[in-house]
């Protein structure tokens, strides 16, 4: 069993690993999109960039744990909100998103990993939380 | 040009070989995760073989690109290829730090990532 606060070891390594892969994919994809064809779908591509930054922050914060936990909470929560809001919008307001983002269709283009991962991340943060933290919830 | 044509015939099978090798490594890691065992040195050696094949891939792709017969979407292609190179070494480094079954799960995730990226690499090369 891993100690409290320790989000980056044991099963946490798996969470961090999947985050790292998604962060790399999102960063790279948005980089190419913005450098190459920003004018085609500015909202979608800038949103991709924001998503990428959030994934990078989440990866680092989860790997570090300890004092970084609040950062991890914020980043992972942002992802969950992002994937739900953008997921709904990408279905109902197709005009806003002429091209796909990481969060479009609830992360469809990435095997729905973007939808599952924040839930996994929140669960993991809660599980590794300090005792009083857990009791308060 | 002859060398380019030979390399062209080599590249796709090489990419598939890496994908299959990565899947095999992933299956091995997955099995060890199920039986609650960490990554062992023999798996890292197997990972080293897959990694060496990827380095050959890079050389072939560079030579092909230099002879004017490169990937249809070079940005995406090189991004994917450089990413696949990093994944296994990171998983290997972690397997030294994490001597539990979770290093096996990490190696499984890493192997699946490499396999998936290679499928995409083959697609992106053709365009």
Automatic annotation (TrEMBL), chain A:
Keywords assigned by UniProt, alphabetized: Membrane, Transmembrane, Transmembrane helix
Parts of the chain that traverse the membrane: 12-31, 43-63, 70-89, 109-125
Organism superkingdom: Bacteria
Protein name: Membrane protein
Source organism: Actinotalea fermentans
Automatic annotation (TrEMBL), chain B:
UniProt superkingdom: Bacteria
Bilayer-crossing regions: 6-31, 43-63, 75-97, 104-126
Keywords, sorted A to Z: Membrane, Transmembrane, Transmembrane helix
Protein name, UniProt field: Integral membrane protein
Protein species of origin: Actinotalea fermentans
Organism lineage: Bacteria, Bacillati, Actinomycetota, Actinomycetes, Micrococcales
């Amino acid at each position: 069993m891993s100690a409290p606060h320790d989000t980056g070891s044991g099963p946490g390594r798996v969470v961090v690993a999947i985050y790292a892969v998604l962060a790399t994919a999102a960063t790279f994809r948005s980089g190419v999109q913005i450098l190459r064809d920003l004018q085609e779908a500015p909202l979608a591509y800038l949103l991709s960039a924001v998503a990428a930054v959030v994934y990078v922050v989440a990866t680092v914060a989860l790997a570090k744990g300890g004092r970084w936990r609040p950062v991890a909470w914020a980043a992972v929560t942002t992802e969950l909100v992002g994937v739900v809001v953008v997921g709904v919008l990408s279905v109902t307001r197709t005009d806003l998103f002429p091209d796909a983002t990481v969060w479009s269709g609830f992360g469809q283009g990435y095997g729905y990993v973007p939808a599952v991962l924040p839930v996994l991340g929140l669960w993991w943060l809660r599980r590794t939380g300090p005792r009083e933290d857990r009791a308060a919830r | 040009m002859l060398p380019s044509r030979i390399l062209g015939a080599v590249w796709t099978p090489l990419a598939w070989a890496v994908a299959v090798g990565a899947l095999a490594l992933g299956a091995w890691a997955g099995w060890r995760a199920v039986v609650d065992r960490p990554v062992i040195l023999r798996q890292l050696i197997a990972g080293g073989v897959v990694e060496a094949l990827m380095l050959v891939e890079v050389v072939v792709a560079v030579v092909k690109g230099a002879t004017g017969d490169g990937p249809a979407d070079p940005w995406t292609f090189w991004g994917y290829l450089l990413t696949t190179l990093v994944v296994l070494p990171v998983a290997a480094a972690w397997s030294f730090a994490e001597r539990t079954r979770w290093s096996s799960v990490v190696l499984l995730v890493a192997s699946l990532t490499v396999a998936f990226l290679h499928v995409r690499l083959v697609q992106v090369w053709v365009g």
